[in-house]
Amino acid sequence: MSHHAAPFEIAPLPYSFDALEPHIDRQTMIVHYGKHHQAYVANLNKAIEGVPELHGLGLEDLLRDLYRAPAGVRNAVRNHGGGTWNHTFFWEGMGPRKGGEPTGLAADVVRSAFGGFATFQSKFTQAATGHFGSGWAWWVRTPEGRHEIVSTPNQDNPLTDGKFPILGLDVWEHAYYLKYQNRRADYVAAWWNVVDWETVSRRLAEAEARKTAEAAAR
Questions:
Q1: Cα separation, 145 vs 119, whole angstroms
Q2: Where residue 112 sits, what CATH number does that domain have?
Q3: In terms of domains, do 142 and 200 share one?
Q4: What is the torsional sign of CA 62, 9, 1, 85?
Q5: CA dihedral sign, ordered 146, 121, 90, 188
Q6: Which domain holds residue 187?
Q7: Mean of the pLDDT values across residues 96-110?
Q8: What total number of domains does the chain contain?
Q9: pTM attached to this predicted model
C-alpha cells in the first residue's frame, strides 16, 4: 500500500460498492468510502497545507513519527492521517468471494504464532467486539518479529507504536450501522467472509522483508 506525499488522494476502491454483499452492504460502502474516507483525506490535506516541511513525506512516514509534525497539527495528522491510511488498508484486506480459512503464508503464521485459525479468530473477534467505543482491531507484527492482536482507539494506527499492521478491522459504528445497527458482533462475524488471505500473506512477506532490510542496515 502506498501513499505518496501531500496533497494526498483517496485510493481507488479495489472492487465495486456492492462486491462485498451480503456481508457488507452497498449503501454502507458508498457512505463509508465516499463520505467518511474522503473526509479524512480532505481534512488531512487541509491540516498540513501550511506546513511545508511535511509535504515531502509519505503518509506512513508521518504516522511512524508523529513528532515530525508540529504540535499544532499533530493531532490532525494522527486522526485524519490515521483515518486515511487505515481505511485504504481496510479496503485492501477484503474482497468478494474471499473468507474461509487462511491459505499460504497466512495459514503458516496463524498456526505457528496463534496455535491455529480457531484460536486466532476467537482472539481477533474478542478484540473487535470488546473494544469500547470507536476504533480498530489489528493483527500486527512487532519489530522483534512477534505476532499480536491489539486494538486502537479512534483512528490511531499501530505504525505509530513501531508495529507493522497485517490485518485491520474498522469497528466504528459508521462501518456497520446501516445494516447491523448496534449489532457489532454480527458485523464482525460477517466480515470473516470477506477477508482476503492472499493480501494478508503478501503483507506478512513484506513485514519479513522489511525486518531483514532493517537488520542489514544496522
A1: 19
A2: 3.55.40.20
A3: yes
A4: positive
A5: negative
A6: 104-217
A7: 97
A8: 2
A9: 0.95
